[in-house]
Amino acid sequence: QVLTIGLTGGIGSGKTTVSNRLAHLGAHVVDADEVAHKITGAGGIAMPAIEAAFGQAAVRPDGAMNRDYIRTLAFDEPATRQVLEQILHPLIRQTIEQALHRVTAPYCVLVIPLLFEKGGWREVMDAVVVVDCPVELQIARVKKRNGWPEAQIHAVIEAQATRATRLAGADFVVENHGDEADLLAQVDELHKKLIKIQAK
Ligand code: ATP
Q: Where along the sequence do coiled-coil regions lie (predicted)?
């Protein structure tokens, strides 16, 4: 199987910027959030189980998951998120593992924002890349990008693994506390290392 590199980091740390660069350099990129979105779209493989668990109201007329309904349901019934997760996680895994078999690029990057929060991912990967940056920078970048109030950003960061936890699980660290040119230069170096590992 193709060399498989996990890519993770906190909200606003720079994962998308890094994975876009790696894709540009020739990596095959698979994003777990995109897979989750696809399997809950019209005709998605998760839809039969979602309808069975939450009823017809959870399915929009076009066949996609009704995200607003699920959000409201989760507000009233906190177990909803867990039930949804139990449906989605194995299907996301299955979809990603199938995708890995078809990769012809020299290596594959799996973008898993919650790699350290959700179990079971590490065994699919040969190595883990963590995009790291100080919490203050995460807040500033998300504020600028999403226009969210600081309290909302703090709440997301609180719910995620700490910097220390992520760094402890990293095989490679990309430090994103400089400008974008500095970030991209590190990514180019990382790509060279991965190509070398892949060639062995
Ligand atoms: P999320 O977890 O929210 O999806 P992410 O980890 O994918 O975020 P990005 O979207 O890559 O992070 O970056 C967050 C924001 O910060 C983006 O608007 C991006 O353009 C900007 N950004 C990232 N790195 C830098 C940098 N080094 N200098 C300036 N802006 C940056």
A: none
